[in-house]
Fold this protein.
Amino acid sequence: MKKNLFCLLAISSFAFGYDGIVYAKNSAKMSLQIDGIVSSIFVKEGSKINKDFVILKLDDSLQKLEVERRKSIFEDVAEYESNKKNLVLAKSLYESTKSLYEKTASVSKDELNSIEMQYQTLLGKVNSFEARKAQEKVEYSIAKEVLEKYQLISPIKGVVTSLEIQKGEWAKAGEVQAVILDNSVCYVELNIEEDIGRKLRVGKKALVKSSGYKKQGIISYIAPMADKASGLMKVKVEFENPNGTFIAGTLAQVSF
């Protein structure tokens, strides 16, 4: 359907140029990464938002508790600190006892072995604790990252053009919950005859007209091949649209 429309537009081009459709260069179809119940929505259709704005949030009460639990476990180092202090003392005792045994033989081999065993046991506990703490840090980080997924955050600055869910509804991961459009930069997509397309170059200036508005743009894309059915080549002309005078989805005329 879209291909046929472009074919008709290109064939029915005005004498001063070619017809095409205006598209916003940047848009985002937003979807959550996890399932859940929507607890808050911070926008409505037509809202202007900045990049990283939170569009909506799922009920995250249980995940917050999980984060706090992981944090508490990770930050509990009382046993670790106690074992570290004891390890310093055990190491000192072992080294001094070993020195006495080797130099004066004033202590027995069994006594030295007993003290060494205590030292090695504490050393093993400290090493094991450090490994466990490294794992707990990872688990705490994962819990925090999962918590962030309870929010739908816009990757671009723009306007909310569609909001597909309401507060209290069940949101499914992967389904589109919102659409954000940034039309500050747009492009016109048109199909033109192959003999004309061969003469165009990326970066060449072009004049864009729509609903009485004019804007200078540049050719940003020329298809490397023509459509087999129509013999037409796809061309895109990009232009700045800071005031939003050009509307995405409308017809525009381009002259080269």
Q: What stands out?
A: The chain has five helices and twelve strands. Residues 1-16 have pLDDT under 50 and may be disordered. The two ends are 27 Å apart (CA to CA). The CA atoms of residues 80 and 129 lie 7 Å apart.
